[in-house]
Design a protein that fits this description.
It is a single chain. This protein has 284 residues and is an alpha/beta fold. The protein has helices at residues 11-21, 45-50, 64-69, 71-91, 124-139, 164-173, 191-204, 221-232, 261-265, 273-283; strands at 2-6, 27-31, 54-57, 95-101, 143-148, 151-152, 178-181, 185-186, 189-190, 209-212, 219-220, 238-241. The chain is 39% helix and 17% strand. Strand 4, helix 5 and strand 5 form a beta-alpha-beta unit. The structure holds NADP nicotinamide-adenine-dinucleotide phosphate. Residues 6-7, 9-13, 33, 36-39, 58-60, 62, 77, 81, 99, 101, 129, 148-151, 157-159 line the site of NADP nicotinamide-adenine-dinucleotide phosphate.
C-alpha cells in the first residue's frame, strides 16, 4: 500500500512517517509544505504522479486563537485545502484520510462524543475543520475522517511552536508559576498511538466514514499537567484556574472528550492516556 503523508514534518505527520516506514507492507511518501501546498491546486500534480493508494492529509492551520483574527487563513488551509485534496484523491482513486478535531463539537453534551453526535463548532478553527470534513465527505469517492484531540508528540506542533506537555516541562524548568484550567475536559492523545492505530485501521479496510481516534480516558488540562510532573517525579506546584480567567480570543468547548465507538467495534483499542504519556517521556 502506497501512503502519501501530507504535512510530513508536522507533529502527527512525523510519527505517521516513522510508523509506516517500520512496516514493509507499506511504502510511505512524506510530503512537506515545500513539496505541495494544499491551498494551491497547481502544486498537487505530485499526487497525480505518485498515484498513492492512500493520502493522509494532516496539513492544517492549527492556531485556534489566531483563527479568530484571520478566519480566511483557517478556511483556506483547513477547508479549501481539504476540497482540493478530495478532488485529486477522487481523480486518482485514492483513499482520502482527513485528520480532524474534537473542536467540531460545542462541549454541551458533557460526556464523551461518539461518531454519531452532531458537530456544532463554537470557534472559527472548529468551523473551518468541520467545513473540511464536509468537503472530504462530499467530494471524495473513498474517505475516512479521523478525529483526534489534544495532540502531543516528539516533533511538537509546528503551527503552535510545540505541544502542551513540552510547554509545561519548559515552564517548570524556567521556574515559572504554572496555572492550568480545571474546568475544560478533553482526551489527551499521543501522536505515536494515532499513527500506530491508523496503520492497523487501514489494514482492516473498514467501511468509509467518520472515526474517532484518541487515547482512552479523559481529564481536565489541570489533571493532565499534574500527571506530567507525577510521571517525571518532579515536585512542581500546578495551580488550578478557571477558563474565564484566561483572556483568550477563541471560545473553546468545555468538554470535548471523544469516544472511539466505531474503532472499538472494529476491535481496535487505544491505551489509556496515562500509559501513553509515560511512553512519551521514556522515549525522550
Ligand atoms: N495539535 C492538536 O492538538 C490537534 C488537536 C486536534 C486535531 N488536530 C489536527 O491534527 C492534524 C495535525 O496537527 P499537528 O499537531 O501535527 O500540527 P502541525 O505540527 O502544525 O502540522 C501541520 C503540518 O501541516 C503543514 N501545512 C500547513 N499548511 C499547509 C499547506 N497549506 N499545505 C501543505 N502543508 C501545510 C505544516 O507545514 P509548515 O509548518 O511547514 O507550514 C505542518 O507540517 C491537523 O489536521 C490538526 O487540525 C491537532
Amino acid at each position: 500500500m502506497k501512503v502519501a503523508v501530507i504535512g510530513a514534518n508536522g507533529q502527527l505527520g512525523n510519527d505517521l512517517v516513522e510508523v509506516f516506514k517500520e512496516d514493509s507492507s507499506f511504502e510511505v511518501v512524506p510530503l512537506t509544505h515545500k513539496d505541495l501546498d494544499v491551498t494551491i491546486p497547481d502544486t498537487l500534480g505530485i499526487l497525480r504522479e505518485l498515484k498513492p493508494d492512500v493520502i493522509i492529509n494532516t496539513a492544517a492551520y492549527v492556531r485556534v486563537d489566531d483563527s479568530e483574527l484571520y478566519p480566511e487563513k483557517a478556511f483556506h488551509v483547513n477547508a479549501i485545502g481539504a476540497l482540493n485534496i478530495a478532488r485529486v484523491a477522487s481523480e486518482i482513486n485514492a483513499v482520502n484520510v482527513y485528520i480532524s478535531t474534537d473542536y467540531v463539537f460545542d462541549g454541551a453534551k458533557g460526556e464523551p462524543y461518539n461518531e454519531e453526535d452532531n458537530p456544532n463548532p463554537i470557534n472559527v478553527y472548529g468551523l473551518s475543520k468541520y467545513a473540511g470534513e464536509i468537503f472530504t465527505r462530499n467530494y471524495s469517492k473513498k474517505y475516512y475522517i479521523v478525529r483526534v484531540a489534544s495532540l502531543y508528540g516528539k516533533a511538537g506542533a509546528r503551527g503552535k511552536g510545540g505541544n502542551f506537555v513540552d510547554f509545561m516541562v519548559q515552564k517548570a524548568r524556567n521556574g515559572e508559576e504554572i496555572k492550568v484550567v480545571d474546568d475544560m475536559f478533553m482526551s489527551p492523545t499521543y501522536t505515536k498511538d494515532v499513527a500506530r492505530t491508523l496503520k492497523k485501521f487501514l489494514e482492516l479496510n473498514p467501511v468509509f466514514g467518520i472515526y474517532h481516534m484518541v487515547n482512552e480516558g479523559l481529564c481536565s488540562w489541570y489533571e493532565f499537567a499534574k500527571a506530567i510532573f507525577e510521571i517525571l517525579e518532579w515536585k512542581v506546584e500546578v495551580k488550578p484556574i478557571k477558563s474565564n480567567e484566561l483572556k483568550r480570543l477563541a471560545k473553546r468547548p468545555r468538554f470535548s472528550a471523544l469516544k472511539n465507538k466505531k474503532l472499538e467495534a472494529l476491535g481496535l483499542k487505544m491505551r489509556h492516556w496515562r500509559e501513553a504519556l509515560r511512553e512519551y517521556f521514556e522515549k525522550r
